[in-house]
Amino acid sequence: MSSNLNINVKHVTRIEGHGNIAVNATNGKIEKIEWQVPEAPRFFEAMVRGLSYEDIQTVVSRICGICSITHSLAATKAVEKALGLEVSEQSDTIRILMHYSEQLQSHILHIGYLAVPDFFGATSVVPLVPVATDAVKTIIKIHRTANEWSDLIAGRTTHPVTIVPGGFTKIATEKQFRELQGRLKNTLKDLAAVADVVLSVAEKIPDFTRDTEYVSLKQNTPPTYTFYHGGITSTDDTSTIVPIDNWQSVVNEYMTAQSTAKWAKWHRDSYAVGALARFNNNYELLTDSAKGVAKKFSLEKGCCNPYMNTIAQLVECVHVVDTSIEMIDELLSKGLKQEKVTSKPKAGKAAGCVEAPRGILFHEYEFDAAGKCVGADMCIPTNQNHANIQKDFEKLVPEIIDEGEDNVRQKLEMLVRAYDPCISCSTHMLNVQFVR
Amino acid sequence: MSKPRVAIFDFACCEGCQLQIVDLEEELLDLVGAVDVVEWREAISDQSREYDIAIIEGSITRPEDEKRVEIIRSRAKILIALGACATIGGVNKLKNNFELDEVKKYVYGKDATMAHLDTAMTKAVNEVVEVDYMIHGCPIDRKEFTYIIRCLLMGKKPEIPEWPVCVECKARGNPCLWEYGQVCLGPIIRAGCGARCPSSGFRCFGCRGYIDDPNVNAAKDVIEKFGLSVEELKEKMILFGTGYKPTDE
Predict the structure, then answer these.
(1) Could you tell me which of A253, A98, A224, A237 has the C-alpha nearest to residue A160?
(2) Best of A15, A47, A134 to disrupt the B interface by mutation (most B CBs within 10 Å)?
(3) Distance in angstroms (rounded) separating the CA atoms of residues B232 and B249
């Protein structure tokens, strides 16, 4: 073998946040393969100390612009548990509807604007406008629907302002929920059209497999393809569900000999979170039409091709829209009530967990008797994926080393994008060695 | 006339303001047609060293980022600060309320001394280089963004509101949140958001920054009327207003 590679991608494009790829090989011998994260650390855990429990979600939603609702919900769940606040069934349902709007928004953004341009050999969605006009318009339409759905329930598209500890400041009207439901029914048709377009270029999805542990939420009562309730499970131990308060025993942040990076591991050296993890743990609970999309792409439970995460997101788009249409019926059949929410400070400590679009997310807070935050810890999905991205790189590069530098670079960038990393979220930085 | 070349850069932030630009959807395609987007890492793969308008999102938190922003300034004819992190430092400035070493140690423990984890006091962009225009908010308001860009393309000076959120809140017919026991910053914060948060029943927490001459004494009268302390008001003011004069008064 005589392959030489010298790949140094500084700041991979079309991902959220900053990540670098460094690969060196001489005469087929690999000298270095590294996935690096140079994002400016922001120290959220330290910054929230001293704030009132009422202000926590306002600040921590700013961890991420794409999954701000997710961060708000994880934080609010933790605050409510720490303070012993009950949330009504109605508020719980509306929060899940809010959460689904963000899953659709984030997934369709990733699929349409960030990942799929690679399948067309384009540098962004913009050059696709003249060549795939209808497809781009459909993606824009779905994205707008998702945003207006968030707007309606969260008060804003990004950084919600209706969530407070204990419930909501304001909820949408019955008429608004019905209108939303009508739009969601149309969205199902639009998603089917997008699925067909992606299917037409699906041969561009690299064929790569690495046996992987997948970690996600799991909810048995009632059995649900969950993004919001339940405990933590793994494909390596499907019978165990770990309670959320024990999340530290799952993420096990550790240092490696190979680099100084802080990674996460549970049963193995790394694990993956995200749409494919949820799919692999909860496939049976998808709606029939969501399963239908998976079948079109031959995506099956147990899939260990990380590039298929983008397809699992497409499956989840259909699932959350399907489910939301039903949930709105249920919600309205019980009659919407204006609930008055009150809360009082109390000392306590608790963790909150939800599935971000890109994987399981943990927040934990401690409050003193005056309701002031005295301690915080968060573990975001992208950090749980970094080690797994590195392990994928290490298996992938030797397999494709003879394809030439451009192809190797392209496939590595596509792999990073497939994980839909959200590096701004990285409240903890990875410790990596930099190649300048 | 050739189209103005626009480049978008991000520093320490959540990238939610860039997302608002993406969320312009079809309107973005029109806008992209009127300019030449030469660099935008989050959305496109192209990169450039030449541009007329530089849009900067995020706060400046490291010495190397100060240098990067200075280079961008030297290349750009017009420099725009995009969103609260860039215009006023945003929530990132909460960090400045603590000792930096302590902050690092709290988050990273024994790894806190590693070189790449180094952090400096958070700065808004105009604390490092001259800023020509500010697009306020966390996140920015999409309509205001297109308005300001449109003005610049036509060579006009955009009008940024110099009155408080209360004006827009009253115009929307909202009941005052102070009457409901909320410590709302509407009286001292710059309007232009359409009072979105109070309209959703949530107190204004000041993401657009203070108006140029906030009536701090009137705000004090309001808190007195509702039986609250200055401390309670300050506690809300630091969320987005750490390190600003009215917060300290």
Answers:
(1) A98
(2) A47
(3) 13
Any domain includes B158? no
Across A205-252, where does the E strand assignment appear?
Answer: 215-218, 231-234, 237-242
Taking CA–CA distances from A109, the nearest residue in chain B reads B22
pTM of the model: 0.93
Strands (E), chain B: 5-10, 36-40, 53-57, 78-82, 133-135
d(CA B165, CA A406): 52
Look at residue A432 and tell me if it is in a domain: no
Q: Which residue of B has its CA nearest to A43?
A: B107
B201 with A169: Cβ contact below 8 A: yes
The pLDDT value given to residue B249: 58
Domain that holds residue B34: 5-153
- Please report, rounded to a whole number, the percentage of residues in chain B having pLDDT higher than 90: 55
Angle at A206 between CA A203 and CA A211, to 5 degrees: 130
pLDDT in tens, A387-412: 999 999 999 999 999 998 889 999 99
Residue B249: alpha-carbon gap to chain centroid: 22
Q: Are B189 and B68 found together in one domain? A: no
Tens digits of residue pLDDT in A77-99: 999 999 999 999 999 999 999 99
Domain closes at, from B103, B121, B153: B153
User: For the sheet containing A29-36, what is the strand order?
Assistant: A5-9, A20-26, A29-36
Is B64 within 8 Å of chain A by CB? no
Q: Are strands A5-9 and A20-26 parallel, antiparallel or unpaired?
A: antiparallel
